Amino acid sequence: MVTRRTALKSGVALATLAAGAWRNTARTQEPAGGDLRLWYRQPAEAWTEALPIGNGRLGAMIFGGVARERLQLNEDTLYAGGPYDPSDPGARIALPRVRELIAAGKYAEAQALANEKMMARPLRMPSYQTIGDLLLSFGASGFAEEYRRELDLDSAVASVVYRHDGVSFTREVFASAVDQVIVMRIRASREAAVNLRASFETPMPGAVRVEGDTLILTGSNTSQEGLPAALRFEARVRVLAQGGELVSTEDALSLRGANSALLLIAIATNYRRFDDVGGDPSRTRAQLDAAAGKSWDQLLAAHTAEHRRMFRRVSLDLGTTSAAQRPTDSRIRNSQTSEDPQLAALYFQYARYLLISCSRPGTQPANLQGLWNDKLSAPWGSKYTININTEMNYWPAEPANLADCVQPLVALVKDLAVTGARTARVNYGARGWVAHHNTDLWRATAPIDGARWGMWPMGGAWLCQHLWDHYDYGGDRAYLADVYPLMRGAAEFFLDTLVPDPSGQYLVTSPSVSPENEHPMGAAICAGPAMDRQILRDLFAHCIRAAEILRVDPEFRAACAAAGAKLPPDRIGKGGQLQEWLEDWDLEAPEPDHRHVSHLYGLFPSGQINLRQTPELAAAARRSLELRGDLSTGWAIAWRINLWARLRDAEHTHSVIKLLLDPSRTYPNMFDAHPPFQIDGNFGGANGILEMLVQGVGGAIELLPALPRAWSTGSVRGVRARGGFELDVSWRDGILDRAVLRSAAGGVAKVRYREGLRQVRVRKGASTTLTAAQFA
Ligand code: FUC
After folding, report:
1. What average pLDDT score do residues 637-642 get?
2. pTM score, two decimals?
């Protein structure tokens, strides 16, 4: 074994280290607006106890052990496989027969034929993969005193402090979007007390080497579903220290007797785009060189400033009880028996922290686990499930003032419009583009897994709602012009593929499914389920509106209007419920408590169905919700919170929030349990909390529509509303105290509070204040 030793003189800065790097700084300043920390009295054992950090692209789960630290690492472009095209001309040949069988009521036969002929090749998508772990062994026993592990949402820094053998140790770590590195600092209260051995452990094919002060893991992704492995990655860790001695072996770096240590971690793959893997993972070297030229203070200051630029736009106060004094895991354990309104506020802000950490301009969008995955084959591949999950990830983005985080989703849709045009042409002989119920890093768009899940052509159309919302909240006309062709392409696919229903009166999708729910005719495949019609009503309406604003495409507008008018209306079934399918099948469906509530899309996230304009349909949606029941898994509960909030049933909505915070659905690190972990519930739940305080439905901003008794006094600052408004709302003893509306561009808002409706003019760059008395 080759061993090299480098003495690191105390007080002499390393060549790569800027002067001042080791100045001890005071702790990150106190967060604004309540205690925004997750904290624990013990290290993480399970992955769902570890704390996530991320810069949108690089992610790490921090375990905080005393004898050993584990940083489980991710880079958001490391998926299995390589570029591929799953479309299949056989699908188009079978299409007319599948439609005929559906029209003839032979659903099981239709589904069998679709399974045989219409599915993607390969049938499944490759998974998102971990880089592996960076392990730091401290050569100490695991026993510590005064141990505390925390994640400060306001500074986006995770830290561990403890005393060991009379020495106080502090570890702080963050993932910098500014410098594209993960940075960790380790300090001790006594000189020469920092010892560590850094090594890698990975389930991926890879090799470790040492170059000077840098530990390097190079590796590749794996082949899955018959797709050859096309990605290479490189992870570099540079160990910089004040004092002590750096000892390197072939596959590890050891630091002995240092006063403090700074670790810089850079990771990259050769992924460039869904059809281009020509990147160079060794750019990590330059990233480390650049970061090593800055001090800890500089790196930290740039990181916190960038994080706070987004994070501090919104504050939420739902009241505090003594329960908030306890460690986070204990609060979750007690969430069913103690009143802890601040836990809901923390859940909301944690979701905002997570979105900032896993979806930033230029990165991949938030996948099923956001950015954080420790497996080679993750649950559901940790990819993009677009029949609810990816959309739910972005529900809070616009209203919770994180519109910048939507950019990766817009970029994904741009890719899908390319790959989905191929699937539209090859599988359906249609114009435009289509995406089914999942996509991945390679932007595959054909139906996967099996017809009962995958044979659903609406994924791309649903994503287009987010394109429109981004305009509707922000009002940026140039952006609208940029994304309008994507919306038009999504609509063109349906102009070409909608077919007459058996009555000949209406146009319907066929084949399709009501996401993942089987109907009583022995299959899931069907024609014209409620969700498809509701999504299409929104898509056509938004296309028409966008084309009007941009003054383009009159013929296309007319075609959208004509097709939209022929979509079957929502129907109320014999149980008083909103029909999930064209036929009144709901009461006989084999899984009455199914987790998906797809037919309620019209109530939320869409506002087509609402209490004021369509009260009968809203009552039917309520009946459907009651029939489904509230008990479900993470994201399905989160959807129900938003739906109950739209029905303005405050106490009931609050009871469903309690279900979400139950330890069976919220892990100790506050990750949502599906189970296992799936991040959509975090985002959907956060949006539900906001929906209780501010809603935008039917062209009006509604204040405190579902305020529960448990949150009787509080405030929210910085919420965004459609039409370019931002508002602060405060309330006392269950009654509106005041609402302040701002508008960068100026505008007229309709604002509702209880039964009162006010038309309010907000001057450009100015604000307008409203009180409860003005709504009397
Ligand atoms: C859909 C859901 C599952 C899971 C998966 C990722 O298939 O029905 O519950 O959330 O997506």
Report:
1. 98
2. 0.96
